[in-house]
Structure formats: C-alpha cells, structure tokens
Amino acid sequence: MALFSQRASASLLSAESLAPKLKYDMFLSFSGKDTRRGIVSSLYHELLDRKFKPFMDSKELEAGTEISSHLLTAIQESKSAIVFLSPNYASSTWCLEELANIVQRLEARNILVLPVFYNVDPSDVRHQIRTFAEAFTRHEQRFSQDDGIEKVKRWRAALTKVANLSGLESNKYESDRELVQDILQLVHSKLTRQAIDRILWFLVYFPFPSLFSQLLFRLCFLFAGFHVFNGLDLVATSLPAAEPASQWKHDVFLSFTGEDTQEGLISHLYHQLHNTRGITTFKDDGQLKKWTDISIKLLNAIEESRFAIVVLTPNYASSTWCLDVLTKVFQFMKDKNRILPLFYNVDPSDVRNQKGSFELAFTKHENKSSQDPQKVKQWNLGLKKVSNLIVWDSKNYESETKLVEHILEVVCSKVQKAEKSETSIGYFEAFEPTRHSVDKIMEMLQHDEVAIVGVCGMGGVGKTTMVKYVGAQAPKIGIFDHVIMAVVSRSPDLRKIQGTLADMLGLKLHEETEIERARRLHERLMRGRILIILDDIWKIVDLSSIGIPGHKELKSGKSKLLITSRSGIVCHSMGCQATIHLNVLSEKKSWNLFAKEARQSFDKSTNNFYDIVWQVVRACAGLPIALIIVARALRDRDLTKDLAEWNEAVRRLTAYHSPDLDYEEILFECINLSYDFLRSDDAKSCFYLCCLFPHEDLGIEDLLRYGIGKGLFQDSNIQNARAKVRLGVKYLKDSGLLMDTELDECVRMHGIMRNMVMFVASYEDVLSLQNTDFSKIPETYFRYESALRVLNLSFTNISLLPVSFSLLTKLETLNLDYCDKIIDISILGNLKKLKILSMRQFPLEELPKEIGNLTNLRMLDLSGSYNISAFPLKLMSKLYQLEELYMQCNFGDGKSEGVVGEEKANVGSVEETGRKELNILELRISDAKCLPKYVEFNPNWINFDIYISRYRSARASTLEHGFLHHHSRVLTLDTTINSLPDWFINVVVEETEKLEYIECKGLNNILVEYGHGRLVELKYLAVTGRHENLEELMNTITWVPKEPVFESLEELHLREVDCLKELCVGKLPPGSLCNLKILVVTSCMKLKSLFTWDVAQCLLQLEDLSITQCRSLERVIEASKETLNTKIVFPELKNLILFNLPQLTWFYSSGSATIECLALEHLHVQDCPQFSTSTSDFHSWNQVRVNDLRHLRTNKDEMSDVTSGLKQENQESLAPEDTVQSSSPNARQLVEVLREIQSQRDELEAKFLQERAALEAKFQKVVSTYIQKAI
After folding, report:
1. Which of 39, 31, 29 is nearest to 82 (CA)?
2. I need a surface site. Which of 210, 457, 490, 831 has the fewest CB within 10 A?
3. Cα–Cα distance between 1071 and 1097 in angstroms, integer?
4. Beta strand pairing status for 746-748 and 739-740?
C-alpha cells in the first residue's frame, strides 16, 4: 500500500469492505436424482484436482440443512455457478430456489453462469414443456396461495433466463468425459476473464504512480500470457459504455502518400466521393511523417471501412507509414475484392518486382539497422499482392478527370451492392435484443410437430426485420432450400401475393382465375423444403385462396409457414402452433441501439450532454424503428457544436407525450423529426414522392418520372435528376426512412410508416388508376381534374381516351404502359406541357402525327413496342427537347419498307437521334443497313443499349421482361464491326462496356474485332449461337496483337457456339485478359480443350469457371511438350463447375502435373463419368464444398448459364412444365413422383461426393504423415 496515496488507500478499504468475500470458485446446482453420482461427481473431483474451489451440497452440507441459510450463503460466496438442467431439475423446489437466487446475482452482474443442458432440449427448459411442464403443474397445485404463486412465477422466469444463456448440450457429446473437459475449459476461460476485469477495475481507481511500476505490471501480464496496450486504451475498454458502433463507419479508406498526391488527385477524388456522391470516405488530414508508427485512429479507420483505395505512386514505398497501412489493409480485408489499387504515374510491374523508385526505397529500408527484416518482408509481400489486383492504371486514361469519373463509377457500384446485401435483412444486425426470439423461431421451424409459426407485436418493434433475418439465415444452415415472402397488408391483393410468391420460385402463373393460380402455386409449394413468410397480416386470411397448403399438408411435407401480425389473436386463428411475442426494448437496450445507430460514444464524461441523449432515447419509448430513425437523424449532429438541434429534438419528442403511451403518436413525431432534420432537399423530395404511393414498391425510375411531373428537380436535365434521386434514396435509406426490396432499383417504406406519412403528401395533382378494371373512362371524368400533373393509367383495358382528357393542360408525366387494348391516342397532342410519356408495349403499328406537338417532351419510352416497324422520322424531328428515347421496336425487319411519310428509315432514323440534347438511347434495329453511313455531327449518347440483330438472345429477352433500363453502354450485333459506319464505331463501339455477338456469319477472330472497334473499355463479352466461320475465338497467328488485349474484360460467355474448336491459337501478349473473373462455356459441342497453358497463365484473376454440356471436351487445359509437367496456378479461382461433360478425363493434360487453386471453395461435378480428379488434387487452402446445390442458387447472377443448363437437363428428362399441366391427373402425379426421386437422388449424390472428399482428405493426411516419418 506504500505505492498508493492515502485517498487511494481509503477508497480501496471502502471498496473491500463493501465487496462480498468470494469463498468458492463455482457453485454446482443440480438434481441429485439425475446427476449426483455421474457427471456432477466427476466434474467436482476434476475441479479439485485443478486447484479450483467448487461448492457441492453433498460435500459441504448435511442432509436436511435449511436452504435459506448455508446454501444461499454459498451462492453469495461463489464467483460462478454451473447449472445442470436435467429432466428432474424442475421437480426439486430446492433446485428452483437455488436457481432463483443465482439469477438474482446474475441480474446484479456479480456472478458468471454456465447452463449445461443434460439429457434435455434447451427449448423444453425455455418453454417449460414435457417434464418441466409436469413439474410446474404440481408446483402450481401445491403453492396455490398468493405468496406461492409469486414464487412459482419467479422460478419460471429464472428457468427462462438461464435457458437463454449460451451453454453446453450433452447430446452433442459422445461421452460425459468429453462434456466435462469442455466445462473445465470454459470455466477456466470465464474465470480468467473475470480476474482480468477485476484488475482493470483496480487500474481505473488506482493508476500507477510511476513509469517503473507500470512497466513492471506489463511484464507480469506478458509472462501470464496476456498482451497489454497503453494504460489509456486498457482503461477505456473496461469502462461501462455503449456497445461498439456498427461495423462500417466509412465506405472507403484512402491510402496514399501526401508527398505525391495530397493536393491534386486525392483532394479531387475525396471531394467527389465524400461531398458529391455521398460516399463516406476516410482521409487522414494530419501531416504524415516518415518513420512514425501507425496510429490507433488509422487502424480503427481501416477496420471500419468497407473498401480501401490504395493509391500507389513513385514515393509510396518510401513511406514506412504507407507500407504499414498496406499491411494492415490486407490483414483486416481478407476479401481481396474490397481492396482497390490505383497505379498513379507508376507501372504495376515496378510495384510487383520492386523496380525503379520502389527498388531504391527498399534498398534504404534494408540498409537501416533499426528496421525489422521481418517487417520489410511483410511490406514486400503486401506490394506483390496489391500489384496483382490491378483496378486502375492512370496511363490508360486521357486525363485525371476521366480517371476520377471511372473510380467514382466503380466505387459507387460496389458500395451500392454492398449496402443492398447488408440491408437486405433490414436493421437486425444493428442490435441484439431479438436474438433469443430468433432462436425460438429457428427451434420451432425445425420442430416436427410445428408447421405454422407466428410473430406478433405492435408496429415498429421489429417483426418484419426479424422474419427477414430468419429467412436469410435458414437456407445457410440447411433448414430450407427456398425462402419466399409476400406482404399481405390491411387490404390483401390475392393476385399480387400469388404473383410475388410464384416469382420468387421461378414459377410463371399464366392462369386468369385466382383459383387456378392457387392450384398451380399449391402444387409447387408441396415440392421441396420451402419457408413461406406472410408479413403484416391484419385479419384472418384463407391460405387455400392463395395456394398455401394447410397445417396438415405442411406437416406431411417439408415446407413451413411463418407469419407476422400485430395481433396474437390473428396468429392463433391462423393456426399457429407457436407464437413469439415481441415487446419494446428495455432502456439499456434502447441506449445501446441508439448509440450504434448514431455512431457516437456517449458516456457520463459529457456532463449535461449525457442527460440530453438519455431524454431523446427515453422519448422513443423502446421502439426499434423510432430509435433508428432518430439516431440517424442526429448522427451528424455533434453534441458540442449542434446542441440546439439536440435540444430541439428533445422538445419535439417530449411535447406531446400523454401519461398513457400512444406508440403510434410517438412514432409519428419521430418520423416528422427525421424528415425535418434531413439536410438534403433532394432526399426530402424523394420522401415526398414515396409518400404519394406509400403502399407501393417504387423504383428509382418511378420516383424520377413522378418527380419531374410534380415539378421537382427543375434545374436539372434528366440524367442529373436521376443522380439526385439515387443520392436522395441512399440518404433516406441511411436515415432509416426507406428500405430496399427484393427487386433491384426499388425501395419501400416501412409498414408502420405507410399510414403516417399523409402529413407530407399532396394528392391534388397526382392520380394513379394503375391495375384498375377500367375498360372505358367516362367522357367527363377529367373535367374537374385540370390540376393534374402526374397520371398513371398503366395495366388498364381502356381503348379510347375521353374528350375531357384534352383539359389536362398541366399534365407533365403520363404512363400508358401495357394498355394493349388502346386504339387511338391522337388526343395526346393537346398536352403541350407533357415532359414524360411512357407507353411500353404500345399495340399500334405507328405513332400518331399529333405526338409531334409535344415539343416539351424530354423522355419517350416505347420499350417492347414491336408492332412499330418504321422509324417515325418526321415526328421525332419535332421533339427537339428529347433527352431520353427508349424504342425497342422492329425497325428494318422486312415487314415494311421502313418508310415514314416519304423518307426512308435507313437514311436518317438513327441520325435524327443524334441531336445534342439526346444523351440516352435504347434502340432495336433488325439490320445494320438502317444505320446512316454519315452523320452531320456525332451524337452525344452518354449511355446506350443498341440491338442490331434479327435474332433474340437470352440477354435481350431478360431485358424485355419488365424493360429495366440499366443505363450502361450495351451493344448487340449479328454482324462484324468493320461493316459498321465509322461514326458509329467512334461514338458507340469504342465506348461499349457490354458486347454480345449473335449468330454472326462474318466473325472468325475476335481479335480482329478488338482491333477494329478499339474495345479497350469492354468488360463483358458474350458470343452466342452458330457462327459458321468461328473455329478459334482468338488467333494471334493470323492477327498479331502488338499490345495486351482485353485488359478490362471481366466476363466472357460462350453459348452454343457449334463450330468453336479452340479458345485461342498462338500466344497472347502478357497482360491480356488480366482482369477476367468469370468464364462460362455452354454447349460448345466441338470443343476438345478449353485453353492452353499459355492462356491459363494470363488468368490470374479468374474466380468463376463454368463448363457445361460440351460433349466433346476431353481436357480443360491443353499442355504442350514444353509445359507437360509444369505446375498450373489459378490463385483466385473460387468456384469450378463441370456439368454434363461425358468425354472429360483430365483437368490438365494427362493429370500428372500439379494444379494449384489455392482459393477454391466450391466444386460442382455432375454427369462427368470419366473425370476422376478429386478435391485434394486442387491443393486448396479452404475446405472445398462439393456439389452444393445451394451455392449454385446463391450465385445465380454469375452462374445463370449453368442453372439454365441444369433446368434444361431436368426438363428434358422429366417433361416441360406446360406439357405437365396439360396432361391427365395420373400423368401429373407420375411426374411429381419422378421429380421427387430425382431430388432424392441429387441429395444422395451430393452427400456421397462430400463424404468421398472428406475420406480423400483424411487419406492424404495419413499418407503425408507416414511419408514424413519415413523420411
């Protein structure tokens, strides 16, 4: 005590006098009838042997000792409790009273508790069923008085509390001995952690008086096996505070050397990312000093960032700071797709091989006596790794502006994909309080006797979020193969619900009546393991009217139903065998959730600010959604700088609270506050638009078109307005006011908000009659609607527009999509203010000349209007403000002369679309001859999708279904590039990012196309169908490339190319195909080998390789004599699929050479009878999953060709769906039996291959051990 001050000594004495004297290390609670002579006795003696001090009643107390004295004292004097929950545990009132006292100490946070579920299921304990239910029935009869009833309630609560703790289950162990060993290990770990916490508490109150004593303490800790950071960090981690912030605090981490880029590129890039695009970016603004250790701030920033942009410059390696940062980036970001290198004024090979300035820098590092050689090796390895991840090379861009634009495009795309993936299950990951409820749902879904599970609770407590989370997790752990979900809502639309569920199963419902649609859906749901989720049920719904099987059918099959409702009565009436009730959060959990979402650390050191935060939290009344949207609204408000806004939040949230809590009123005010606190006017505009249609899923394009019609975004062209909408929607999702949907580019409001947002919306100038039964609109219908600015008549059966339509002189947006009965729209010529006109699948053969009067028109959408066969040249020439034109029509298809008036389409059709205002064009032309040879000036098309072919491809049919406008640069051809006009090559081909060839007779060498089209921007290439002269995709002998080719290409798809014999003849220049990640080859019947060893050397970034239905393929890689026994390496290959390859014998030549696919995760081999290579032959560092069909489903976007091949194979063997449906009942039943047999066969084959792979791995390990011993 001499080292401490008198005040410290006094405090210590005071603390010691108040603290309980802990005599025992652990208290053993158990039922003697079940465990005394078995596992408990064994554990007790093992604990004694390891010098622990356990308490066990048989050793310490005489029989009959009153429980209220010695036994309860022993509980108070124990550091921990091990509770053996066995079948007869609840029969003993002694055990239950012990447990109640243990839980009392647990809630006071001064005891550690480890439950051991011994010969019982945790759910039996948690829900008090089976033997526990029988025991409590007896207790309730025995203790029927008031005091007794309260005692029994306390016992029940204690059991539930302990059963929800993380523990051990005896049924997962082969013997009691193994279980005892795990208990010992866990107890040792927990008590050690407890001891450290006590030491940390000691340090908080009694800091070291000298540096010497601090160093001495560190040495003691190090010898004990613990690592100690500086005192401040250590103390900070021990203080009770809010739980850590959500994982991603930054979207992007910028690594750079200020000496090269601080004032130029980095400043420009940071501004564009952070300020313009709203991508949260970390950039260290401090002065980076050489030879300074990397700071904790920087380490945290790396760990909290989704992606890292590493800017490699000539002086990068001179900075040890930068090299340390790079090492940490690779350490924290295991997924290399998160690391985005930019080679700025430096050659990637110099970085890879440490040449030039990098060589000089490393020479200096190696010559420094103070430099750790091991660290220098790590730096070297980091640079080699990053040099193989080439994303941007500054020498490939005309200017720095172009470079930054491309960086923005790539980063925004990656962040959006990441956010969609992370938020697809809502806000669940942000907080833990419903975790135990999820466990209950998972248990019930796996229970054989339970077919329907309900989740109930008031609006805003997280029901939808939780069932989405369950839906995301269930397939991962193998409970279900498919998860489908539909929102029922207060007014159920059965057709919409049926369609949603069917779409998620890939089932098309063509039937007209709801009964027939229900029958089809019912048949599909009875096949396979499917989790059906019905969200937001307000009243009893007849499941059979939708097509969902009833309780008995679900029970007999493999599917289950999960529903959510605000009413427990509804859940009961719907036949739920188990219902989970969700309540509002406790104050502590509310605080933790608020702190996470606000991304701020709140503690008592903030003095009066701490109380302000507490007032805001309490005002949200424990509603998760209220806490989230308010926390995010205040996320960027610093307590010291923006105190007035925090006080305003407190005032508004507490002003209208009544003594009786009205949760809807609270949530309403929270939404209102969040809306008012939005700092982006564009975000407010987007939210305003969503309020107009609160019950619909709205796409980005819908919001854009409605916004322009409402007069928003007036100062922007459509392209800029679209960017504002995207940024506004991102802001709203970040604020918690909008959620993603299952559909791309769509958002929706949270269900509880839908009935509360009318305070924002004004409906006087917006009208939607979409999907109504209108076949005829009364002539006077629009007489009193002259104020309308937005009108949607899509999916109606109207044939004529009424005379009163001409009175809509203020109308700016009009949707007439899929009105296939319409015969006359000439009256539209009176709508002079119209800016947006959408008429997808327009049924007439030509547009009326009156459309030319719409001189303010800025967007015309005629997607899928294949009856229009002539380009309306004269009409288009009058639409001089047109910015976006979507015309997927059949120009030049031979049905007409392509004449409009007296002018031919092949003279000026596309030329007329070349005016300066037009910047987005989607056009379908059947013949390249429709393109003019010369144009007066080059068009300014920013994005385009131009389809020049008489054939339809898989891509085309996909785009046409729903007509999604992806706003990229896409070109489809059935001719070679050299047959296209020069202006078209300059404007379109050179800028193309996605290119597809369909049955192109003149195509014989894709390298010639690369040269003619200068395809340096190309990222996606597909060659589809019969190409008569294409025997080699690439031939470097007939066309010799001087530089690397296809450097930007990321995907290559070859489909049904009948004549193709080789992928490449000759050697490709080094650096070719250096970014190719996906290679898919399907139904190329003459292909005997895919590529040579030389080509394989180029594919260092290949991640997915799929080869299906190539009947002649014998080898994947063909070796020459020189490379016959040379090792082949695919460092990034993760997924390999080989399907229906009857001649395939070896992956690489004769099979004697080594194949290294170190990153391989999934191997799918099916119908390859001669292929004998096993997982061990690929030398992966990962545990390779074999024939995992779930993996194929989760990667359906990248592996669409594979899954379509599998479907085609199954359909050929079992019969097409249409044929099945038209067959007799007996035939349909037989097909169902065959499908079930096929499904079982696939499952058995998958299990067999997995077991074989496991045995091979064990055999390899045994052989390796034997060889090592022999050596």
Report:
1. 29
2. 210
3. 10
4. antiparallel
**More confident of the two residues 707 and 716:** 707
Query: So what's the pLDDT on residue 628?
Result: 85
- For the chain, the C-alpha Rg in angstroms (whole number) is 35
Do 413 and 339 touch, CB atoms closer than 8 A? no
What's the pLDDT band for 295 if we cut at 50, 70, 90?
A: low
Total length of the chain: 1271
User: Distance between alpha carbon 565 and the CA centroid of its chain, in Å?
Assistant: 26
Copy the structure tokens of residue 205.
């109150």
| Nearest of 1190, 1072, 1195, 1085 to residue 1143 by alpha carbon | 1085
Distance spanning both ends of the chain, measured CA to CA: 61
What letter represents residue 1212's amino acid?
E
Confidence of residue 534 (pLDDT cuts 50, 70, 90): very high
Output the six-digit token pair for 1244: 């058995």
* DSSP string of 1032-1057, one letter each residue: EEEETTTS--SS---SS--EEEEES-
DSSP 8-state secondary structure symbol assigned to residue 40: I
> pTM of this prediction?
0.60
Report which DSSP code applies to 246. Answer: P
Beta bridge partners of 923: 887, 946
Token pair 């053993």 is found at 28
Angle (nearest 5°) at CA 389 between 383 and 394? 90
Is the predicted pLDDT of residue 839 greater than 90, yes or no?
yes
Amino acid type, 1138 = L
Q: Are 1052 and 1021 in contact (CB under 8 A)?
A: yes
Query: CA 203 to CA 220: how far, in whole Å?
Result: 14
Round to whole Å and give the CA distance between 199 and 196.
Answer: 5
Asked whether residue 996 carries a pLDDT value surpassing 90, the answer given is yes
Q: How many CB atoms lie within 10 A of CB 107?
A: 11
Q: How far apart are CA 938 and CA 99, in angstroms?
A: 82
Find the DSSP H helices in 64-210: 72-76, 93-107, 122-127, 131-142, 146-163, 176-205
Cα 127 to the chain's mean position, in Å? Answer: 34
Question: Taking Cα atoms as reference points, which of 902, 1018, 993, 1011 lies closest to residue 942?
Answer: 993
Residue 1097 phi/psi, 5-degree rounding, is -65, -20
- Residue 654 parent element (H or E): helix 643-655
**Do 532 and 480 touch, CB atoms closer than 8 A?**
no
For the record, the structure tokens of 380 come out as: 């070297």
Q: How far is CA 484 from the centre of its chain?
A: 17
Q: Is 43 exposed, middle or buried (0-12, 13-18, 19+ CB in 10 A)?
A: buried
- State the Cα–Cα distance between residues 282 and 860, nearest whole angstrom: 41
3-state secondary structure of 200: helix
Beta bridge partners of 342: 311, 392
For the ranges 270-279, 971-980, 1085-1094, which has the lowest average pLDDT?
Answer: 270-279
Average pLDDT over the chain reads: 77
Which residue type, as a one-letter code, is found at position 416? Q
Arithmetic mean of pLDDT, 16-41: 77
Task: Single out the residue of 599, 680, 669 nearest to residue 634, CA to CA.
Answer: 599
- In sequence order, which ranges of 1116-1224 are alpha helices (DSSP H)? 1189-1194, 1200-1214, 1217-1222
For residue 332, give every residue at least 6 positions away whose Cβ sits within 8 Å of its Cβ, in sequence order, or none: 302, 303
Tokens of 279: 């991508």
Q: What are 882's two structure tokens? A: 């047109």
Q: Where are the beta strands (DSSP E) in 467-624?
A: 482-489, 530-537, 560-565, 578-581
**Residue 1055 neighbours by CB under 8 Å, 6+ apart:** 954, 1022, 1023, 1024, 1025, 1080, 1082, 1083, 1201
Write the single-letter amino acid at 1194: T
